Amino acid sequence: xxxxxxxxxxxxxxxxxxxxxxxxxxxxxxxxxxxxxxxxxxxxxxxxxxxxxxxxxxxxxxxxxxxxxxxxxxxxxxxxxxxxxxxxxxxxxxxxxxxxxxxxxxxxxxxxxxxxxxxxxxxxxxxxxxxxxxxxxxxxxxxxxxxxxxxxxxxxxxxxxxxxxxxxxxxxxxxxxxxxxxxxxxxxxxxxxxxxxxxxxxxxxxxxxxxxxxxxxxxxxxxxxxxxxxxxxxxxxxxxxxxxxxxxxxxxxxxxxxxxxxxxxxxxxxxxxxxxxxxxxxxxxxxxxxxxxxxxxxxxxxxxxxxxxxxxxxxxxxxxxxxxxxxxxxxxxxxxxxxxxxxxxxxxxxxxxxxxxxxxxxxxxxxxxxxxxxxxxxxxxxxxxxxxxxxxxxxxxxxxxxxxxxxxxxxxxxxxxxxxxxxxxxxxxxxxxxxxxxxxx
Length: 441
Hints:
Pfam families: MFS_1. By secondary structure, the chain is mostly helical.
């Protein structure tokens, strides 16, 4: 965390916060929150591995699987805003504990579904349970950290999702290979139980570990509390008086559509990579798990390198646009190399890494595109439009897979969607509209 602490704000009205105060806050809160986000990502995508064995047991078609994967986001979207509003009333400790315990319980309960309809219902309830977790954490950070740190902390959260992807594949492979029949449960049931139970325990631990506000922290001295509260109070506060103007800005919806296209590709990667790998002719679950981790490992490296390059050159559009086109090209070529396992794995890893790396690149654009007065509401709208891709794209992929028996056409469709997104970005959002395109921040 030392890189995060290299710069800290000074103002005319508040003394500078020394690195030791920042370090104390970050080391207290961030390990727990990062671990929670990793577990959160694993509990979302464990379904992609469970599908390999549960489909036959509960008569789960590819179309029904696509609906189940996508309906999660419908529940999430419907309850995201209410969850955040409730957090402002009762505090982060209560809210995050409630969210984690509930999603852990729903994950464990998914082990006991006996039909496709029950799975779809369980995924919808899981979306409701998880609703508000990530935005809640981002809001929680505003209670503790100044704006100069929050951007880097958010980037760390996004990168931790890649860590989850690296862990989830091999972990799922080991559980489903070695624990089939343990305590009378099937392999896919053990996967849900063993990935859901730690979330419950972590949520209970959070009740005792988290503190809502700096002034309530018994682990800070009075002087440290005063420095944090003064620094936060000295930051300018935005208003929403111009939000109506933001809603009339077509660039808001162009950005939302671009994010929709990106999320369509990245979500397809998240939920269908194990099935795609098995289509290469591989059946060993541990081998599939290891190979499924490759795209996330490549994406983790690509996120760092692309983000660093984008910041150094203060250029956003072409970095993002070309990344999307690389992903689209890799997806489109997959069908042409059928039968060549090495080339298939290479294109899968490159395309998936590009689709996943496009997400943090994209989120450098909305803050530079929107006015400070309308940024909060505008970003929420963009996020909601993107999350709709989680519902629609997975239903579409499942339907295509059921109709054709192959995932390659589905990946061709996602390639076309990503090309459309890149063109919308490069044509619909000119460089001169981005306030940080020339002046480093």
